[in-house]
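Hey team,

Sharing the Exocyst subunit Exo70 family protein run so nobody has to redo it. Sequence (471 residues) first:
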Amino acid sequence: MSSGYLELDMDLERAKVLKKEEHIKHIKSLVREFSVGGGDVRVPERWLIELGIGWVLHLPLADAASAVQTYDALMTWIRALAQVVEIIGYTEPLFPEQAVNQLSNIFEEEEQVLGQLQFAKFFQEAMFKMLPFVDWIVSEALVASNGMEPPYENLSTLLGVHGALSKALPQIQLASSLPQIQLASSLLLSAEVVRIQHDAVGLLVAKEAKVVGAIWSTMKEIRNRILAPMEDNGDDSSRTATLEGSSDIHKATRSLISYIELLRTNYSSLAPIVSVNYQSHNAAVPPLDSMIIGIASCLEEKLAEETGSFPDRSLKFLFLFNNSYLISQKVDPLWSVIEFNPVTANNESFLSFIKAHQEATIRKVQSYMESYLQASWVPVLSCLFNNPTPLSLAKNKNYSPLAKFESEFQKVYTTQKLWKVPDPGLRKTLRKAINMKIMPDYTKYIEDNNITTKRIAPWELEKMLQELFEG
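Structure output:
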């Protein structure tokens, strides 16, 4: 490492030390002012204002409520909590044990413990002022939304608060377990310090538990919203689209995909919560993974029921093909999280389950594609080989098998050109499958019957097939 980098590292380290010393000096002055004022609550309140969260002092007033509804305000509260916890970690520098060992009389010993007590009370008061935000955010998250969208934003907010509390709790527990100043003449004061610290830990534990409960309730609400029948969720546009029929991705599928992405992003935070509240039917599968698979399976069953109203069987199978494929594409990447869990990664039962699930998913998607081909293109092809045209009309080119084939092909093409397969790769695969279903037999028919005059040339048919499903 060059001398320039070493100097930069030293400068950064000195800056950190100076910043820490400034924090300690500032907190000492605040604690002293708090103590002289007989526990003046305005002092810790002023500190919270300095930290940018003065609005927590006015909860749950309407103006404060509107202030904390923004992402920036939430992040400010999280940063403020981190700073408070950081300062609490300075307990030893504020009250060094060496200074106590060097005290020469009982008065100085009691003065030292009294200072630590005031420090503990100051932070207790600050925490009391900060943590009602947790209650407020939980109550807001659990209030039923006026809209019908699943409350993903509420879940993200709760996860942010939970993450801050989860990070703060072990640090405060560590601070509370540091050797306390326990002098013979100051046992009562020292015991009071310990009690305050333990109360702070207990309060944080209770708030964290409350947030966990709200997270699980919100997750259940999201599941219910995703799986709610169209006629029950008040979404007229989705209901109309379902009745009329569309091959596109269903709104519920898009909602599930958003949910899966949110769960995957927060997998490490949510896995412990889900493991306590959700009982997996397969012991080899982690509860969160099992829960996601369960929701995806329920949605696919629901979508299959919804297609009962579709006017066209071909459209029904194309719709299921599109939606099942997208769901499988989002569920399967979840298996990559096993890299964070060495125990699961080496679990043969779990790995076998993954393989079996992926194979079953592939078979399901392929079955929808084959059903679509049978409903759409096999009847077109049958015009060439299963032709009941009377002999009197068979020689008429307008009634020939080829003419019927071309006519039916044109009808299907005209209709399905407006249908949609959103995924480019899936669209390419389906076009290729149609080509393989139609073109070999069509070409063979032309060759076997020495047909030289055609309304649509083979290359034109192939070009038309490449225009399908653009929407």
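The chain is about 75% helix and 0% strand.

Ping me if you want the raw files.
A.
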